[in-house]
Each structure stands twice: as C-alpha cells, then as structure tokens.
Design a protein that fits this description.
alpha+beta; two-stranded antiparallel sheet; 13 helices; 44% helix; globular
C-alpha cells in the first residue's frame, strides 16, 4: 500500500472515526490480509495434535475453501475431530472464550458441537487451536424449513439465562481478530475495508463509494437493545448449521457472545427474501421465522421499530468486505445486491412487524 499524501489523509480520517492513534489506524488498514487469511501446515498440525493429546491422528483434511484453517482430523484410535487453527492475530483468550461458550451450551443441552476434550485449546505455530467432535451430518433440508430450524435455534439461544462465563461481547462476524465483539465491530471493520482501498477507487466509482462510506458511518449498531447470547453467523448454512443424527446443530461459534439479540435475528430475516428476478420479501418465510423464534422470545416494540435499520449491519459488512477484496485483486465489484433494493429492507421489516403484532 502506498504511503502518499492521500493515503495518509485516509489513515488520519480512519483514526478519528475509530478512536485510534495514527499508528494503530495504519496497522488496522495495512494488516487486514494477514489478520484474516491463514493456512496452517496440515502435517505439522497432525504432529502437534499427536504430541498434545496422545492421539493417533493420521490425516488432516480442509473442510472449507473459505476457512482454510479448519480441518477434519481422522484418527486410528477413535472418531474424527475438528481442529480450528485460528489466524495468529486471534489471541488465545478469544479461543478460550469459544470453549467456554461450548461448555455453557452443553450444560444447557443446547444443540451445538461439543468439545473433543476438556482441555480443548492449545498453542501451535503462533496460533491457538480448538478441537471439537466431528459430527456426521447432512445439510439442512432446504427451503422454508431451513429458516424455521435456524429461527428456533436462535430463539432457544437468546432465551438462555445470563452467565458470567459467557459474558464476552459478541455478534460481529469475527473474520478480523481486531474487530471481534458486538455488531458495531462489523461497522468499524467495514470502515477499515473501505479505507484500505480508498486510494484505489476510480473517479467513476467515487460517488457510490462515498455513499457507501456514509451508509456505514450512520448505520444503527443495535446498541441499547435487549441482549442475549448471540451466535453471530447462523444464516450461513451449511457452514454454521447442519443436521446431525439427533437433529439440527449449530456450529462455528467464533462470533458468539453477548450482544443485541435483534442483530442475530435481523441477519436471518435478511436472508429470507426471494433472489429472482429481483430481491423481494418472502412473507411465508418471514412468518415461519417469527413463529419459530417467538416460541422462545418476544421482541420489544423498540426492537421491531429498529429492525429495518439493524438489518443493514451484516449486509453492509459483506459489501465492504467484498469491495476491498475485489479492488485489491483488480476486478470490478458487482455484489451490490447485498444492499439492493432498499425497498426490500423496508418490506421485510414491515412483514416481520405484522407477524409479531398480528
């Protein structure tokens, strides 16, 4: 990244908007790739797990093209494990927090993955590793039933009692170790993604880029709304929700913690829409989500009033993430559909309010 005068101005602006010093802001923008992308050595990971746990681990297979640090660990002496060797930028304390959440969920018989061993966190090549049990599973059944299942799991999660052991802030996407916590961190991460490529934006795209910046700056972060234990990413089936032998299970709890429960539900509601020929509200799916969720939780009037605004948090994050990725790779960004049309957010929020208040 160049250090010309224009970029220095961007760094100073980013520092002002995020409350950082100049050097912190510079690190925030320049270190994005190293903090987000990580691909550990599979053979070395196997050796580490053998030595750490005394298991006969024989193969480490990547499970996702998006999460290059997540492996299935096959063993000769027992069932498979999952090992997540997180990016080095993520502190061990954060991974210990994941383990604490999973212990809490097991205590409450919540349908989540389980820790593989009591001492499930270890250090490996500068990374913290979490091991959980591998679940033989199939994807969710599809269609409206997917939304009903995920809404039921969110409702059950948000209704769990407060516990100090799982009181860390949560709900943000969790891709960037510097931007983990409540949903506001997604908006701050979005600013970092955009500021990191500000000097690459061409004149023809500048007006739309500035509108996006303003939209991120003014977004409702959900602060002040009722809180619960959040998952943070449940919409992303099958990466975060699967069907095991005993029924649906929520997995991948990196983004979990306490935050405004509406952010979790708003992201799921955002995903209910029809995709073609244009983005439009699917009232049947909305009603299914509301019916399943309200078995466990009733939203307040303020939550319903702020739903449309809060629904923008994660789509804004995704657009900013993709915008930086594409400009960095020198290709045009064409995923504006995450935010368009604006009427979709309005009509989906209205349908949700009708379903809750009807």
């Amino acid at each position: 990244m160049t250090k010309d005068g224009n970029f220095k101005k961007v760094v100073r602006r980013h520092a002002e908007e995020t409350g950082q010093r100049y050097t912190e802001s510079l690190t925030d923008l320049e270190g994005l790739s190293d903090r987000i992308y990580h691909e550990p050595d599979a053979d070395r990971l196997l050796v580490h797990l053998r030595n750490r746990y005394g298991i006969d681990a024989v193969a480490a297979t990547k499970l996702s093209v998006h999460k290059t640090y997540v492996f299935r660990i096959d063993r000769n002496d027992g069932p498979p494990w999952i090992a997540r060797a997180f990016p080095p930028a993520r502190p061990r304390s954060g991974v210990e927090g994941d383990a604490a959440v999973l212990r809490f969920l097991e205590q409450h018989d919540y349908p989540a993955e389980r820790l593989a061993v009591d001492d499930a966190v270890s250090d490996f090549d500068g990374s913290a590793v979490l091991v959980t049990e591998f679940l033989e599973s199939v994807p969710l059944p599809g269609g409206i039933e997917d939304f009903r299942i995920m809404a039921d799991m969110l409702g059950r999660l948000h209704a769990l009692p407060y516990d100090e052991s799982v009181s860390r802030p949560g709900g943000a996407s969790g891709e960037d170790a510097r931007r983990m916590g409540k949903p506001r961190q997604d908006l701050l991460a979005g600013l970092a993604f955009l500021d990191a490529v500000d000097t690459k934006v061409g004149a023809a795209d500048r007006e739309r880029f500035e509108r996006l910046l303003d939209q991120v700056r003014s977004a409702d972060d959900g602060e002040g709304l009722p809180e619960g234990l959040l998952h943070g990413n449940l919409l992303h089936a099958p990466d975060h929700a699967i069907v095991g032998k005993n029924g649906p299970v929520a997995i991948n709890w990196t983004a979990s913690g306490r935050g405004p429960r509406l952010a979790d539900l708003a992201f799921l509601l955002w995903g209910t829409g029809n995709w073609a020929p244009t983005r439009s509200t699917n009232e049947e799916r909305v009603e299914a989500v509301v019916a399943a969720y309200r078995k466990h939780v009733e939203l307040t009037d303020e939550e319903l009033d702020r739903l449309e605004a809060v629904m923008y948090i994660r789509p804004l994050y995704l657009v900013c993430f993709g915008y930086r990725r594409d400009l960095t790779n020198g290709v045009p960004f064409n995923e504006w559909w995450f935010l368009e049309p604006a009427e979709y957010f309005t009509t989906t929020a209205a349908a949700t309010r009708r379903a809750f208040r009807g």
